[in-house]
TrEMBL record:
Domain Carrier: 1-78
Protein source organism: Allocatelliglobosispora scoriae
Name of the protein in its database record: Acyl carrier protein
Pfam family, one: PP-binding
Gene3D superfamilies named among the record's database cross-references: ACP-like
Lineage, opening ranks: Bacteria, Bacillati, Actinomycetota, Actinomycetes, Micromonosporales
Membrane spanning stretches: none
């Protein structure tokens, strides 16, 4: 899993909720940080930041529950691994 992708996703979430302490494995849906608008912003952020297209069959909640699961999604969709 790309540490860079995970860190960038976490930074994006923390930018929205600077008062929250969110780890890479916490379920942001369960914590109540996600509404439908922010979910779409996450999809757009991932597609734009990592130059990937998320196919409809990957738009599952489990792929967006944690920064770790989003980084794993980026890894699967990236033609080349996202690394330093």
């Amino acid at each position: 899993m790309s540490e860079i992708a995970k860190d960038q996703v976490l930074a994006f979430i923390r930018g929205r909720y600077p008062q929250a302490e969110i780890s890479d494995s916490e379920d942001i849906f369960q914590l109540g940080f996600i509404n439908s608008l922010f979910a779409m912003e996450l999809v757009m952020f991932i597609e734009k930041t990592f130059a990937v297209t998320i196919p409809n069959d990957e738009l599952r909640i489990d792929n967006f529950r944690t920064a770790k699961s989003m980084a794993e999604l980026v890894d699967r969709l990236s033609p080349v691994p996202v690394e330093v």
